[in-house]
Design goal:
Blueprint (H helix, E strand, L loop, with lengths): L2 E7 L5 H10 L4 H8 L5 E12 L2 E12 L20 H9 L5 H22 L14 H17 L3 E4 L2 E3 L3 E4 L2 E4 L3 H6 L5 E3 L9 H10 L9 E10 L10 E9 L9 E9 L4 H13 L4 E8 L5 E9 L4 H11 L6 E6 L4 E9 L2 E10 L2 E7 L1 H11 L3 H14 L3
Parallel strand pairs: 1-4, 5-8
Antiparallel strand pairs: 1-10, 2-3, 6-7, 9-10, 11-13, 11-14, 12-13, 15-16, 16-17
């Protein structure tokens, strides 16, 4: 079952708010701490507690971190005064050397890479030379890696979020006094919708922006999906006019009503800049994961450019699986879709005896009476190979025997 996680930001989005939301959805802090323990010569512990504000109830976390040779943990991470500075290469090496699941490593590395690229554009230096300052502290590393691990534990496939609220005024950080939101956050939010608020605080942090924008692969609420769970994650600050709250809504695909086998989803896309071999491979993979049918047609696009029309027929609940394959295995930028109905013959399998051995036949019935019989190709091919005759000869022999079943 494919799962969607949709974030509604009421009071903003930070690394600890995202992690708190995932914990409120059911991720156990002990599982996160076990994963974070593999990051290196550090102790990182996530402590979760219940929290309530403005009539809302949810989870709030603190992160305690220190090197193993230290005798006592640092204060919770939102109160640390001088977090250590770390660069991209150091953090990448830390994650690569860990025993985190492969997809968690990949997501975590991508988030830090996007953070480095955003900061490099702000400060005018290569990403490898960027020092993350606040983001480089162990507690912030725990937020990012822990949040990516939380997605893994919840088996999330697709992620989206509503427009993020922005505060106003200025903020103070390691580089000095900056406009609110921070320049790095603005870089990360390019291409995403935001809303303005009267709160004079930093509502969306670079860590929060990096996590959500890196994860996001949905631009709008997925219609027709069912809400399975809701989680609330609270930040550390008390805002003036709203709860400092991030809501996560977990959704799953709605079952087809009545498990209607006649309802069919049609996906279509035009492909004009890839090789036929790659299209053929995609068609095979679509059939392997459950498409009713997948086929191609030769078409002419604008300026009479030759192209291929890919058509996929599948059960509606397989849409996310099919789209994943189409977008990752082809060069298309969009897919058309519509629901339709199909009328099918009742089907049954029978075996006929031919001079080349037994061949399985697919029989189609209409209103209970057999109207068509079709030999199974794979059986015909095997028999033809064994008897050193053309497949057509075996096929026609089986077809003749199959007609006898039609009366």
């Amino acid at each position: 079952m494919k799962r969607v996680l949709w974030f509604d930001s009421i009071g903003g989005a930070s690394g600890d708010m995202i992690l708190s939301t995932l914990i409120d959805l059911g991720v156990r802090p002990s599982d996160l701490n076990e994963a974070l323990a593999t990051l290196g010569d550090f102790h990182i512990a996530i402590e979760a507690r219940q929290h309530a504000a403005h009539g809302m109830h949810g989870s709030q976390i603190s992160v305690h971190s220190h090197k193993h040779h230290e005798h006592h943990p640092a204060e919770p991470h939102r109160h640390a005064h001088h977090p250590p500075h770390r660069g991209l290469l150091e953090i990448q090496a830390m994650i690569e050397a860990s025993s985190l699941p492969a997809d968690v490593k990949k997501k975590s590395l991508t988030v830090f890479q996007r953070l480095a690229e955003a900061e490099s554009r702000v400060h005018g230096k290569p990403p490898e030379e960027v020092h993350f300052h606040e983001v480089g502290a162990l507690d912030a590393i725990a937020d990012i890696v822990g949040a990516c691990m939380g997605l893994h534990l919840l088996h999330i496939d697709h992620i989206g979020f509503s427009p993020l609220p922005q505060g106003h005024g200025t903020i103070t950080c390691a580089h000095g006094i900056f406009p609110n939101p921070a320049p790095g956050t603005v870089e990360l939010l390019k291409g995403f919708a935001v809303t303005h608020t009267d709160e004079p605080y930093e509502l969306v942090t670079p860590t929060g922006a990096a996590l959500l924008t890196t994860w996001s692969n949905l631009k709008s609420w997925p219609e027709g999906w069912i809400i399975k769970a809701v989680g609330h994650g609270f930040g550390q600050r008390t805002l003036n006019q709203r709860p400092n709250l991030l809501r996560g809504i977990l959704l799953e695909a709605a079952p087809v009503k009545g498990n209607d086998p006649d309802l069919c989803l049609v996906l279509e896309t035009n492909i004009d800049d890839t090789t036929p071999e790659l299209v053929g491979s995609l068609v095979q993979k679509l059939m392997t994961v459950g498409a009713y049918d997948a086929f191609t047609s030769a078409i002419q696009m604008k300026k009479q450019r030759p192209a291929t029309l890919l058509t996929v027929l599948c059960a509606p609940d397989l849409k996310p699986v099919m789209l994943d394959l189409i977008f990752t295995e082809s060069t298309t930028f969009g897919v058309r879709e519509h629901l339709t109905r199909r009328t099918m013959l009742e089907r049954e399998l029978a075996t006929v005896n031919t001079v080349y051995g037994p061949i399985q036949i697919k029989i189609g019935r209409w209103h209970g009476s057999p109207v068509t019989a079709s030999p199974e190709y794979e059986d015909c091919a095997k028999a033809a190979f064994a008897h050193h005759v053309p497949v057509r000869v075996v096929y026609e022999s089986a077809q003749t025997e199959g007609r006898r079943l039609l009366g």
